[in-house]
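Quick one:
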Amino acid sequence: MRPRKWVEFAATSSRSLLLSLPEKHVRSSSSSSSSRRYHGTLMAEEAKKLAAYAAVDNHIQNNQVVGVGSGSTIVYAVDRLGKTFHLILSTHASKAEYCVCSYARQLILQHGLTLSDLDRHPELDVAIDGADEVDAALTLIKGGGGCLTQEKIVAGCAKHFIVIADYRKDSKALGQQWKKGVPVEVIPMAYVPVSRAIARRFGGEAVLRMAVSKAGPVVTDNSNFILDWKFEHAQNWKEVNTAIKMIPGVVETGLFVGMAERVYFGMEDGRVKTRDPPIN
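Output:
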């Protein structure tokens, strides 16, 4: 009888190595812009899947506590985990209305997995999450979906933080691909002074993120607001991250500096490219 595989699981660089995988993409020959967009979307989704499967296969082992974020790429990571392991999922929040928790709970329950929380599993062996953009030094912008604070908590609890993304998120410098700025979660009463302080000290513009499907601003899983700081030029991101967090009213930033151990990029041609932090 084969032993059952158990993984305890918590929700929620610039050397490159190319991993050759079977090519699964067929480029559209249609000249229609809508057709190109459709095939581009399919290609990006396949790239996410390739990256997620490679990360899970290379980093998840039996008898581990594993954290998972809430990005769109995580769907494929959970799918791979559900096919490979019998899991106990430990979420970082217990209330279903929390965006990361709710999203992860839904995915995990769909795969027949069991839930726990960070109260019971405060130390994680591995955390896997996506990113909005990754630069050559493995500095990340996260928080496009609004869950940056809880995602950073999960990543910070992990011994190893692994990032999965498609080719569109790969940049030499932050801002080349992601044009929506750096998310900053703020206490609602402080969003105006924080916005002014960021613009005054670092340039650019920090804009209150407005909701699309309802009136008013986006409200985070922690009942806070989000400012999107549209910076004008490259910065010393470690110093900027620390300085912004010291502004009264700031809860957390979407800058993940020195946290990622490896990034897996699913590429257009069916390969998976990995990047580790540069050797100083």
